[in-house]
User: Fold these one by one.
Assistant:
Number 1:
Amino acid sequence: MGVSAVALAALLGWGIVVALDLVSGPQALLSRPLVAGTVAGLIAGDVEAGLRVGMLLELFALDVLPVGASRYPDYGPATVAAVAVVAGLPWQERLGLAILLALPLAFLGGVGMQWLRHANARAVQDRVAAVAAADRRAITALHYGGLLRDAGRGAALTALGLAIALPLRGVTLPARVPPLLLAAAVGSGLAAVVNGALRSTGWGARAKWLAAGLGLGAILAVASGAWR
Amino acid sequence: MKGELRALLRLYYVQAAWNYERMLGIGMGFAAGPLLEELRVADPSRHAEAVARSADFFNANPNLAGLALGALARAEHDRVPGSAVARLRTALSGPLGALGDRLFWAGVVPALSGLALAGVALGMGWRAALVLVLVYGVIRALTARWALATGWAEGMQVGAAIAKSWLPRSAERAGVVAGFCVGLAIPLVATWLLRGAGREPALMAPAVALAGLTLARLGGPHHTALRFGVGVLVLGLLAGVLGS
């Protein structure tokens, strides 16, 4: 099963929305991999692929604190592109490959974010006199200009991701590759989420709550039969 | 407060022109427009000063920026001297950034994300993602409305009002809740992702996780999870191709 042109256009549009959501707005958690992946899966006609990609990349995103001027990966468009690798295909064979595409793309998204912030600063410098003179049109123009530049960043990132994702769907992998990639992807995702949680809680009293959550999660995993 | 709804809506995009020079400044200037509108007729020269000041440097967590926006707009309406308004703006930057980051980025967001991940693993499917967005949307909308209203009501006294409010306590507790919820999700997600993947990934993934965690904890800030992930995936690809 392929990805139709309509679905590709919709994925590109969704990639722009989630790229904007990371910082520019509305910051409604649409850029979280779980949400971005689920909707991308719905668009591509394979919700389970979207959920699997989203779940796995959400583990990496939980290691990130998107604060202030720091550079952090943009997992939204990367998730959308990764779903395009897996949709309609056996996830056991494609999920690791999709994550191999998504991680560098997320890094590139972070680099693009730095470029955007410098470009916005240059735009402000160009209109600094008008802003100082209380020209509200200049403030409005700077605001929408930033939004437009970020949309362009999202479009470029998603288009690049989809352009790589589509050929990857047709690649025949040697039999040993998919299980190794899957182990690497899940293992590094788990390392990311545990590291992020430990960094937030530290080793003091808060760590007890993390341990309690881990314990309850393990019990639920056994009780629900998810481990089988 | 005239222009409240328009200011609230603009706060959702307060970071659209985020830059290294003024950070949230331009977005705050854009959001302040509707709140300063009345001044334009009542006191045009003060309005011009207020508009120019509103786009100066400012930084805060976007979810709490409304506190500053309301307080600064109220101070302009109260004809507080410009130098005092500028000092308030500077004084609010640090606390609103630290409180908001702890409450939202290190608390509410990971807590809800952890619950949503657990929800998917326990069979909620796509509904878990929908609930995540809806619950966060409600929390955020209520916080934004409270922040703008409190800032406007308190004006120059907003600092004291923040200290007495629910914010500092909630920021402290949110991290604990987040730790529990993320902890809850980890075993569920691990088993859900590896179920049906075959014996080899199920055996190898924990070893990879342990290696990645050790490197992240001991290797310093450059050993990020993302870099480790790319490295180990490339190694896996090479090993798979060469071993076939």
Note: Chain B touches chain A through 109 residues (CB under 8 Å).
Number 2:
Amino acid sequence: MSKIIELRNVNKWFDKFQALKDVNLEVNQQEKIVICGPSGSGKSTLIRCINRLEEHQEGHIVVDGNEISENTKDIEKIRAEVGMVFQQFNLFPHLSILDNCTLAPIWVKKLPKKQAEEIAMQNLKRVQIDDQALKFPGQLSGGQQQRAALARALCMEPKIMLFDEPTSALDPEMIKEVLDAMVDLAKAGMTMIVVTHEMGFAKEVADNMIFMDEGRIVEKAKTKDFFNNPKSDRTKLFLSQIL
Amino acid sequence: MIQIFKPNRGNLNTSLSIGLPLIALGFVDFFGSTFLSTNITGFLPNTLSYFFPLIAGSLGLYFIRIEYSGIRILDNFNKNVNSTTFNSVLTLLIIFILFKYTPPLLNWLVFDADFTGSAKEDCTSGGACWVFVKVWFKRFMYGMYPNPEQWRINTAFFILFVLVGAAFFVPAKYKKFIILFMLFIYPIIGIKLISGGIFGLKWIETGAWGGLSLTLIVSAFALILCFPIGMFLALGRRSELPVIKYSSIGFIEIWRGVPLITVLFMSAVMFPMFLPDGTYMDKLMRVIIAITLFEAAYMAEVIRGGLQALPRGQYDASKSLGMGYWRMHLLVILPQALKLVIPGIANTFLALVKDTPLIFVVGLLELAGMIGLAKTNPKWLGMAIEGYVFAGLVFWVICYAMSRYSQRLEKRLSTER
Amino acid sequence: MNLKNFKIDFKNKKRLIPQVLTIFFIIFVFAYFSYNAQINMGNRGISFGYGFLSQEASFDITFSMIDYDGSYSYGRAFLVGLLNTLLVSIIGIILCTILGVTIGIGRLSQNYLIAKAAEWYVEIFRNIPLLLQIFFWYYGALRLLPLPENAINFNDMSFLTIKGWYVPKFLWTNFSLFFSSFIASLVAIFYVFKYAKKQREEIGKHVPAGLISLSIIIILPALTFLLGGVTLQFQYPELNQLSDTVYNFKGGVSIIPELISLALALSMYTATFVAENVRAGIEGVGKGQKEAAASIGLTRGQILKLVVMPQALRIIIPPTTNQYLNLTKNSSLAAAIAYPDIVLVFAGTALMQTGRAIEIISITMGTYLFLSLTISVLMNSYNKKMAIKEK
């Protein structure tokens, strides 16, 4: 399978604080990667650089053959192919769930409304909230909202999906429904990069695991090796604390 | 956008060589015409020459607006100050206004101003005639209140100040007593002290009261009195008894829907019609009643906000403990709700202080009114600007201090929860 | 206010008594006032009634938008005052909106200079009483303007002097045609947007509706000049010597300094509140919203139009409408500098002449009340329609 994301020698600073140090990463099509690590380690910053929500100062990031640069036209093209699910859902409260999902297909891909709505209903059905389509985000539970956010991202038919701690803001009963939706997505062949603490999910779905600490990728390994035989001491410490 | 010439990294040198000189030119022209009185663009028509620095500067900034040139200083500048044409023009405009008008303003206010003397003739320089303010100062502060008796006003305010301070620093047990004292007993003491007529104090009719002290007296009274009325109105509006609810709503909406000036006119002209023939109610009292009722309506809405913001659980818990309506409100609801809306109350008080200058339309000469009187005095004609600048400064200092304090209060109270 | 629930429970004594007492209290107060009022009016030889409105006013008004002189009725004088109030209020509202939005956005700017300047503007003009600001403009700044013979000259078309701002008078022929073309373009624009929406929804084609609308509103009225026989001439104000030392301007329209100071002060004061509302509105849209919108590929303009502004406007509009109302009420301060608004003309001069305090003040207060309540009702229905639905 070919490379679809490539990070080479990426460094990023927030003012004086260096958030990413010499990050190198290759992601293949249909690969699932889970990034874990202590807070402040740069996990979120890393994936936010991939869709240019954060800017990297040094290094190269190439997504599906397009290098991320200051050129805005390129950035918007990349964002149309990379979907993201946020910790705080960030659904648009003034639009119904259906409108949330059809907004970008209508205005970015310039699809007719009917076609956009068909795609939206398909994706909503996929995450099992098609019956809530006409409701507003404020009327849904946390788990429903996050699944709606997932459907919204999928409506742009992205090649890559990024997840920034998707279940951290949810009550325990709702975590499962969101993880189930993500597992379905993984089985369907989507390229996924997930920042999460849900190790059960990681073991089930991830091809490769990445452990980050203080802005560096400390260890990258196949899932089985990562959990059974972590090489670095820091990785071992981290795993012992969360498992 | 029609791209005639877009500065970018490619034509870096060309862009900079056009842009930087333009900026320099604008700067030199501006500097010259403002500080050195030389006009290098005098050959241009009047308006063009005046605004030349702005035009040259904006054009120059357009040319150096290069995305990611690689020069760190330039990129920082472009990102923060020069990000769009709108931004750059606005920045230049602000600098333009600041430098062109601040020096003359400062000159007039301070450097060329006259501070010493006792008559208009002593104001010889072209600057502000602060002698005017100095001579009239006592009038501005106390109105027509006779000079030898002014210590009474000072004393009354001093007592109030002490009481307010005590209310803050005294242990909680005594706070309630201090507040009750302030609300019910102090007003009587204050009024008697200032108007006199007892204990050998000379009687001074309210028409002689004036100046800043009158502003503060009216504000203080209106605030103290409008508070309980506002509270009852707020409770009334939330009542389940229809008659009380709708009369409260009616009362509140009527007072909130009309301007204060009409209310003051009403107090001066219409109110006497409603009193039995021959009774005379002191004008100041009528005005204070009018302002009190007016502000009570706004205060009621502020307090209602607090009552609504309290979680229903508080009402439920009190009721389940067997408390009746009044006990529940006095012991549980109001203490919490009032604490929630202290910033809102401070805002209302601020608005009240800003509204008091209006009482001059019914003939009561508080600070603005006194200045109006002073400036028409034949010995002091033409001092309008100094007078109003002075009044503006006084009010601004008071209101700014109050608004800062209430902002700090709000921050402190919101982090407490 | 839901009068359906206005049921008085006659059985429950404890709840009945306070209400009955309240009703008695209100009736008592009204009766007491009316009784005294009748006696007082009788003593002055006036009987209560609104008939005086058709009497001759016999006083002049310095500025009026419609024809008026002393021979017109009090009712007409009221109308003049009302129009003047509305005039200064509308001008004030437009100016304060433009100024307020600019300053509000400026406060959020990354440019330190702009942000600080905006912050200081708000702090300065919010904390000085409006009355003082009016005084300052009227007795201070505008008094520094030159006499007519040395007027500040704008290309010989308009002149700024201490007696007022003289601008050209618009002399139209066929104005109604021009006006109808304007209305027609508005209607056309409405249909353009409708068509654009249909195209977008059915086939996904994005028609540049904004650009088309702009061209329509410029071209259509312009056509009436070329083809419709609409002409516009200007009557320029001209310097006119009345005597050895007194000059004046003849012709054109004079905008009196009272109006200028009132409008300026009202706008600059109210703009501070509008600016704070705008700032709260834009800040109130969480950062996450912009990020989510960006992550699905919307352009900056689209994010602003489809995600940020709808949410920001919901926060901004209700308190801003309240400020517009305050501005209208504050226009009553016109009485302090003799701008002939409703209060000065009606509750001032007319009241002094007729002595009919109750009738006049009730009409004046009633007018303001009517304005306030109308805006309130409109605002409430807007809020209900726009409210973001929650559980």
Note: The first strand of chain C starts at residue 152 and ends at 154.
